[in-house]
Specification:
About 35% of the residues lie in helices and about 20% in strands. With about 400 residues, the chain is of the alpha+beta class. The chain is elongated, with a radius of gyration of 25 Å.
């Protein structure tokens, strides 16, 4: 039967909502490897379907004197059925961290969920508890309708379009910046690396506590410890999830260039760095290109400089940071068939090579491929930085 029943002190929908059980007393629940990314991708897919289609999750029919909820088929190619997301809505609240700045569509979800009676389906609020499947489906249909109405009122489509348009502004900015540097310095060596993190946290100080939410009888929402059971017991490195930590590492990496590592920056005439949140693991990572004045430097010197930067990243991240060398021969061979290789030492007299390099950096660092950061520590926190 598709109805709610009591199970281990909590309530779950037999048709798919996982039961909530408590972790052992005194055990802190951390975000485990892959959990955060999985929830983020699910929420993104849900919001895309809500905002880009007019799909109604359930068809409510009156049969034999009672209401029956029937899943509606997918109405638009390329989008999932909204009915399949019902059981996940409560878990998505774990992604909400007060004082962080969210993309407009994510903030829309959190605001509407905390104000809508649909939250009671998951035990939030005074009337949470046993809910008939048809009642839950009715509330879910209304919640989706409210999201669409509020999205129109807030102008969410325009806000998201403006965010994508900002990529064009970034492209123009990076293009002008690199054009200026390459015109002032006729011979430069680009050092292109990705700075990322190990997946598994070393200890509790490198992990991130997974919290949850509860609503009082008066409708006041508060953070509470998560009571989800642990899976494999492998906490994920916090900096892969928390952009505030990742940005702090970035700032430390580029700060104090006159200290013990000043030799790494003495020949650096400029850099571009972009924080993204994506790839297979959905983790925070930085794309970087450093422009080095190579006069008097051999290839061995440049190689040593490159790995010196990698060692600095490892140290400022407390050992969790890793570097991927984009000049690796295997990587070069894997992309040359579809991406022209432009990371050799630049010849200022070869305008075509310089233009190709600038085009590569602009295109790669400002691409619209779904890896844009959707959660920032503050609204004005910069994901793209440049410097000398």
């Amino acid at each position: 039967m598709n109805q709610w029943k009591q199970w281990h002190g909590e309530y779950s929908l037999v048709s798919g909502l996982a039961a909530t059980t408590s972790t052992p007393t005194g055990v802190t629940r951390y975000w485990e490897a892959g959990e955060h990314n999985e929830l983020m991708q699910q929420l993104k897919s849900f919001l895309d379907t809500v905002l880009e289609t007019n799909q109604i999750p359930f068809d409510i029919r009156h049969q034999y004197g009672r209401e029956q909820a029937v899943r509606n088929p997918i109405g638009v190619s390329g989008y999932r059925s909204l009915s399949g997301f019902l059981s996940l809505c409560g878990q998505w609240m774990d992604l909400y961290w007060p004082c962080y700045a969210y993309s407009a569509d994510m903030q829309l979800f959190f605001d509407c969920f905390m104000q809508h009676p649909f939250a009671q389906v998951f035990g939030y609020g005074a009337q949470g508890g046993v809910v008939d499947h048809a009642v839950a489906a009715n509330l879910y249909n209304d919640f989706v309708a409210c999201l669409r109405t509020e999205a129109v009122r807030r102008g969410i489509r325009k806000t998201l379009a403006d965010a994508r348009a900002n990529l064009r502004d970034q492209a123009d900015s990076v293009g002008r910046y690199l054009t200026e540097l390459t015109s002032q310095h006729k011979g430069l060596t680009p050092v292109r690396v990705d700075l990322n993190y190990q997946q598994d946290a070393f200890d509790a100080s490198d992990a991130m506590v997974r919290g949850s939410w509860a609503a009082s009888n008066e409708g006041i929402w508060m953070q509470v410890p998560s009571c989800l059971p642990m899976n494999l017991g492998r906490p994920e490195t916090r900096a892969r999830i928390d952009t505030a930590v990742a940005m702090a590492h970035r700032d430390s990496f580029f700060g104090n260039r006159r200290g013990a590592d000043r030799h790494l920056f003495e020949r650096m005439v400029g850099h571009v760095c972009k924080l993204e949140q994506g790839g297979r693991s959905g983790a925070n990572h930085f794309h970087c290109v450093f422009l080095i004045d190579p006069r008097g430097l051999t290839d061995a010197h440049v190689q040593a400089l490159k790995f010196g930067l990698g060692d600095r990243w490892r140290r400022v991240t407390g050992g969790q940071g890793m570097m991927f060398d984009c000049h690796d021969e295997g990587y070069r061979r894997s992309i040359e068939s579809h991406v022209p290789w432009v990371l050799d030492r630049l010849d200022g007299a070869n305008a075509a090579h310089v233009a190709a390099f600038i085009g590569y950096v602009v295109g790669y660092f400002t691409k619209d491929d779904g890896q844009a950061v959707r959660v920032k520590p503050t609204l004005k926190a910069q994901t793209l930085t440049k410097g000398r």
